[in-house]
């Protein structure tokens, strides 16, 4: 078994080798998710990313390559870098005790459309409807409306990533996200796995994550490429 610390250095790669193996598309040592589920890719040898990216672009018009400290090589005649997200990885040290006062619901497939609509309202861009298949999603309802969610994304036999932390603007700053993150983290711990999350550097939510017991551990950069 690959040590947890090694897996965390390349979480997309190891997710696609374990829990999410059914979603993998591989081109000569570069691995991508099925683009209907997620458009993340991972590698160890950056000299292979240009050819692999050209192949993957036959299935989608954009993708991310995720790396701690390597810079992908691309075919700039066919691909351009739209942006580089300077991200960071956070790993749970010890979960802070959080009072759960809201009714938190495990969201079944019947809520796929509502999850999609809420995420695109708050964070438009890259969430796909089948991203739901990557892990469990939990939500809080107000007056019969889904107003806050969090979910699970990348995962292996040793870690699960907390992701899709989204609250409708009308219900922001009411502590809903805090309770959802705490609940989702507890569910991960029940599986004897390490909770992790990724965010961009400088995100105003980082102090909240730290208060919940997460610690900054490493850079994790997201290179967003698009077809020319």
Describe the overall structure:
The protein has helices at 4-9, 11-17, 49-56, 112-122, 176-190, 206-211; strands spanning 24-27, 30-33, 40-42, 62-67, 79-85, 87-92, 104-106, 137-142, 145-155, 159-167, 194-200, 214-219, 221-227. The chain is globular, with a radius of gyration of 17 Å. 23% of the residues lie in helices and 35% in strands. The strands form 2 sheets. It has a 7-stranded mixed sheet with strand order 7-8-9-10-11-6-12. With 228 residues, the protein is α+β, with helices and mostly antiparallel strands. It has 2 domains: 4-88 and 223-227, 3-Layer(aba) Sandwich (Aminopeptidase), CATH 3.40.630; 90-218, Aminopeptidase, CATH 3.40.630.30. It contains 6 helices and 13 strands. The termini are far apart.
